[in-house]
Write a structure and sequence with these properties.
2 domains, five-stranded mixed sheet, D-Maltodextrin-Binding Protein, domain 2, disordered N terminus, alpha/beta, 10 helices
Length: 253
C-alpha cells in the first residue's frame, strides 16, 4: 500500500509540475511599423505585467519588415502601417486572411524645425522649400501616403526633385529635428513625440489618403498567446492607450 501511495503521489506531483507549463510565459516577437514604437512599448509592458510573457519588438519600415518575414525571419505578430504590406505577406502564405485585422488610422502632418522662420501653411507652400524629407515614397507606407497626398494636390511632379527619401517615418522626423531639411511629412503621432519640430499644418483626413494599420499573427507561430496578444491589441481595452498617443482606432469589420 505504501508503494502504491508513493506512486500515486509521484503522479500527482508530475501532473502538478506539468500543468503550469500549459500557461507558461512565452517569448513573443512582434514586427511593427516604426510609427508604433512608443504606443506598442507601453502595450508590451502592460502585457508583460499581466502574463509574465516577454514581448520583443522589431520596429522598422513596414516594407522592410515584410521583406524580413518573407525571408524567414522568426516573428509571431506583424503590425503593418498599411494593408498593402500585410497583403504582400499574405500572398506568400504567411498570414491567414481570416486572422487579419484593420485596427488603426493616423493623420499626416507637415513639420518644420522648431526654430524655422519659413512659413508653411498649405501644401503649395512646399514648392518654395529646397529639401523635404519623406519616408521612402516608393515603398514605406508613410512615404507612400505622403506621395499620394502631394499627387492629389497636383504637387508631386513639381517637388519630386526636392524629396529626401529616408528609411522610415522616424528617420524623416529626425532629418527635420536635425535641420538637415526644410520640412518633412510624417504622421501626427510621430510629430507629437518630438520637441525639435513644430507642426506647420495638418492634412485634413478627407484630403489625405486613407491610412490603415493592419495587424495579424503569423501562421508559422506556434505560440498560443500570439493570437491572444493580437486580440488584446485590437480590444476596447487598448483604445484609450492608442488615443492617448494620438492614433485613431477603427471600428471592427
Amino acid at each position: 500500500m505504501k508503494r502504491l501511495a508513493s506512486i500515486l503521489l509521484c503522479c500527482v506531483l508530475a501532473l502538478g509540475l506539468a500543468s503550469p507549463r500549459i500557461a507558461a510565459a512565452e517569448d513573443l516577437v512582434v514586427f511593427a511599423a516604426a510609427s508604433l514604437t512608443d504606443v506598442l512599448k507601453e502595450m508590451g509592458r502592460a502585457w508583460e505585467a499581466r502574463t509574465k510573457d516577454t514581448v520583443t519588438f522589431n520596429f522598422a519600415a513596414s516594407s522592410d519588415l515584410a521583406r524580413q518575414i518573407k525571408a524567414g525571419a522568426p516573428a509571431d505578430v506583424f503590425f503593418s502601417a498599411d494593408v498593402a504590406r500585410m497583403e504582400e505577406v499574405e500572398r506568400e502564405g504567411l498570414v491567414d486572411r481570416t486572422e487579419r485585422r484593420e485596427v488603426l488610422s493616423n493623420v499626416l502632418v507637415v513639420v518644420v524645425p522648431k526654430g524655422a522662420t519659413t512659413e508653411v501653411k498649405t501644401a503649395s507652400d512646399l514648392e518654395k522649400l529646397t529639401r523635404i524629407a519623406l519616408a521612402d515614397p516608393e515603398s514605406v507606407p508613410a512615404g507612400v501616403y505622403a506621395k499620394k497626398y502631394l499627387a492629389s494636390q497636383g504637387l508631386w511632379s513639381a517637388i519630386a526633385d526636392k524629396i529626401i527619401p529616408t528609411t522610415d517615418v522616424r528617420a524623416a522626423l529626425a532629418a527635420v529635428e536635425g535641420e538637415h531639411v526644410d520640412a518633412g511629412i510624417v504622421y501626427r503621432t510621430d510629430a507629437a513625440t518630438s520637441k525639435g519640430v513644430r507642426v506647420a499644418f495638418e492634412v485634413a483626413r478627407e484630403q489625405g489618403p486613407p491610412i490603415v494599420y493592419a495587424l495579424a499573427p503569423l501562421k508559422a507561430s506556434s505560440k498560443a498567446r500570439a493570437r491572444t496578444f493580437v486580440r488584446f491589441l485590437e480590444s476596447s481595452e487598448a483604445r484609450p492607450i492608442y488615443e492617448r498617443f494620438g492614433f485613431l482606432m477603427l471600428a471592427p469589420k
